[in-house]
Amino acid sequence: MTYSIIDTGNSRSFPTTHPLLEGASGEGDVILLIGEKAGEALAKVVNADHKAAILIELGSECLGEHTGESRAGEGSNILGFARFRLGDGDPSNLVELVRQPNTPESAINAAKAILEGAGLKVAVCFDFAGRIIDRLVRPYYNAALRRLDEGLATADDMDLTLKLGLGYPEGPIALLERTGLAHHFDVTQAMFDAYGESPYAPARRARVAKARAQKKAG
Amino acid sequence: MSEIKTIGVAGCGTMGAGIAIVAARAGFRTVVYDTRQEALDKSLQQTRDFFAKSVQRGKMTEEKMAAAVDKLVVTTSLDGMGECDLVIDAVFEDLKVKHDLFTRLDKVCPSHTIFASNTSTLSITEIAAGSGRDDRFVGMHFCLPAQLMKLVEMSPGLNTTEETFTKAWAACEAMGQRPVKTKDNPGFILNYFLIPYNNDAIRLVEAGVAAPADIDRAIKEGLGYPMGPLELLDLIGLDTQLLLCEAMYGITNEPRAACPPLVKRMIAAGHLGRKSGRGFYTYEGNAMFGS
């Protein structure tokens, strides 16, 4: 299966060169729209109905914002995707592939074939804010920041406990420091807006980091 | 107070047996108490097997193995704990059971003996309150399996003296473990994070966000965790997760600690996890099939 890419610039999933970008051809069975304005580029796709799949790179928005929704009957050959990446850290090898209730299996399989062919791993999920990983880890990171304020343990002991006890490669505090606490604020604020649930509300330390970053930027 | 030479372990389930291995391996005289002789016999046999494997793998010498086995005694009589300088409780997670044990131990053990509890969710201060010596009481939570995991979460109760905590900490290090200090808080550090996180994963399945295999793949590949949350839950057992949630939610009223309704439905259907052959996945032998 061949694929082509429409690049709108500043892709969070592919900030540097990658086999997926290198393997594209001029005309393809699958179209990938990547970059900041990937959703807007959907209008540029010609013969959209005849493609095996069209993949839109997503930020924190839902796929439905680009495709429309209809009584849980939504779903076409258009899918969303994002390579998981924590803040300023390098992108992981994991792509969250967003489908809708009536997305045909053929479109999902076409998308998987392209992504897996470039060495990426794919997890399929439905069209929810935060998708899989952010919905699972952001409340845990918030809890870690709140527990630090409450003096449950030192930052080092908390990190060490989760590494030794659960085999995590990195503790939550060190990880947030490395990838950017201000970015954690942005992600959790978007999820808190979407769900209104306190576990997503940005923890105090993330709020402080964001305010400092804004101050510094003037 | 004399220094800690003899360590007692009360209760020889999986956890107690593991702690006994840790203590004997480090050269402490180790007394294991349980009311069931057959449980003691079984744990002694498993301990010998574990040491024999350690020798095979070159992690222990023959001489050290002989010495460690020599250090270990088992008893069905509580009086046997009278010579211990530190007693670690690894009996059933029930406040009444633990109070009863420590009340009796308080009569048998000399005044310098430090009491410790391996509880994972109960309050150290509350257990200590029924021990007759709440100033000489600490929380000492080992990870499963204790003989392989270095981490021990240690917490003082509200009345624990600094001296008691320092001595217990030193004993923990002398056992070759890595202690971390935490507050007397339900779930301490590890379970305080893990129980709600696992519930969040169950809620993603409940809400139809993604299939278990996709959630696990995302977490492992995206974050480099050794296991996905639903695989881990199948290993822990859904019935155990329910008990952990009830204990933690009962104390904290933290919404994320509340057990998702799906867990009760799965338990009712016999989907307990690996032990029943089906949980979020189905198991045949050692092979796993995504469901």
TrEMBL record, chain A:
Biological process (GO), any one: fatty acid beta-oxidation
Domain annotation 3-hydroxyacyl-CoA dehydrogenase C-terminal: ranges: 132-217
Domain of life: Bacteria
Molecular-function annotations in GO: 3-hydroxybutyryl-CoA dehydrogenase activity
Protein name as catalogued: 3-hydroxyacyl-CoA dehydrogenase
Record organism: Noviherbaspirillum saxi
From TrEMBL, chain B:
One biological process term in Gene Ontology: fatty acid beta-oxidation
Organism (species): Noviherbaspirillum saxi
GO terms assigned for molecular function: 3-hydroxybutyryl-CoA dehydrogenase activity; NAD+ binding
The 3-hydroxyacyl-CoA dehydrogenase NAD binding domain, residue ranges: 6-184
Site (described: Important for catalytic activity): H141
Phylogenetic lineage: Bacteria, Pseudomonadati, Pseudomonadota, Betaproteobacteria, Burkholderiales
Keyword annotations of the record: Oxidoreductase
InterPro entries: 3-OHacyl-CoA_DH (IPR022694), 3-OHacyl-CoA_DH_NAD-bd (IPR006176), 3HC_DH_C (IPR006108), 6-PGluconate_DH-like_C_sf (IPR008927), 6PGD_dom2 (IPR013328), NAD(P)-bd_dom_sf (IPR036291)
Residue intervals of the 3-hydroxyacyl-CoA dehydrogenase C-terminal domain: 187-283
Domain of life: Bacteria
Presence of keyword Oxidoreductase: yes
Pfam family, one: 3HCDH_N
Name of the protein: 3-hydroxyacyl-CoA dehydrogenase family protein
